[in-house]
Amino acid sequence: MLDFRMETFLAVCQCMNFTRASEKLNITQPAVSQHIRFLEKHYDTKLFRYEGKKLKLTRAGEILRSASLTMMHDEISMLSEMQKSGGNEEVRFGATRTVGDVLMGEVLERYLDQYPDANIHMYVENTKELLKRLDEGKIDFALVEGFFKKNEYDFQKYSEEEYIAVCAPGYQFKQTPEQIEDLFGERLLLREEGSGTREVLERYLDSQNFSLGDFEKQMEAGSLHTIKELAKAGCGVTFLYKVAVQEELNNGTLVRIPLKDFKLSHEFAFIWRRGSIYVDRYREIFRRFCA
User: What pLDDT does 78 receive?
Assistant: First the structure.
């Protein structure tokens, strides 16, 4: 059972404010300060520091936060396992929207063929929300296409996927697109903030000293299906994983925009909390998913 002072520490990490942490925990602010002082004395190190008026974690605080989240996650998983009424395997995991929409139907069909009595709970969200669920112990692992901190999560590479620009056939460009900056005059069809698909584009643009703001017009949608339908209707251009639009490319409802010097790919990864006591179980499930 996680020590109550560790729960206080995690609340301060989440709020980065002692007063808000005390309100969240329904205890007094002096009690919050006392719990943090106890932990700092116990570990003989400072866990927080101030930069101006902003509260920040020290390096030691970052280490303790990561370890504590893993312990909390494993405790929740262990409690769920202890309280199961039947002997059937229970699998709680998340998948990002591209992975969920494009890959998981086939993966779970194979899995259930082998393990028909398994109880499956799959949550489909963007990468940011899945990492939050993982940290809170609401899911055991996740299949993501977005970026994550490799010092906080263990992972297995699921696949390497090509990332491309697409539009409707016959789309009328303001200028013939040869490089990505030639698309800045078009409407960009964009996934919501927190999406791994969006972050790949953001990081690429940043590496070229560009940003999303360089596109004159943008339309944001939280659904992969909606983005594709808008693109097929000629409402703009978009950037997606090739695997997510393979069917549309095959039937000609979308076409690839042939940009020069734009060669991007990114991993789809199977991730769980680093240091988890369930590492062998997660690796075995990963093996089954890939079978």
Answer: 63
pTM over 0.85: no
**What letters, b where the CB count within 10 A reaches 16 and e where it falls short, cover 15-50?**
bebbeebbeebebeeeebeebbeebbeeeeeebbee
Residue 56's beta-bridge partner residues? 49
CA dist., res. 256 & res. 251, Å (int): 12
Give residue 86's pLDDT.
Answer: 55
Beta strands in the chain (DSSP E): 48-51, 54-57, 90-95, 119-124, 141-144, 153-167, 187-191, 217-221, 237-241, 255-256, 264-273
DSSP H helical ranges for 52-181: 59-83, 97-102, 104-114, 127-135
Tokens 């927080």 found at = 48
* Amino acid code (one letter) for 170: G
pLDDT digits (tens, 9 = 90+) for 232-280: 999 999 999 999 999 999 999 999 999 998 999 999 999 999 888 888 8
**Closest by CA position to 188, among listed 161, 228, 216:** 216
Closest CA to 12 of 24, 1, 21, 3: 21
In sequence order, the 6+-apart residues with CB closer than 8 A to the CB of 286 are 156, 158, 270
Chain segment 78-120, per-residue pLDDT in tens = 666 655 655 567 888 999 989 998 899 999 998 898 888 888 9
Cα separation values, 224 from 40, 96, 190, 246, 291, Å? 46, 10, 9, 13, 27
Cα(143)–Cα(161) distance, rounded to whole angstroms? 13
Strand-strand pairing, 119-124 and 90-95: parallel
Cβ atoms of 192 and 126 within 8 Å: the answer is yes
Q: Which amino acid is at 43?
A: Y
Token digits for 212?
A: 């999303």
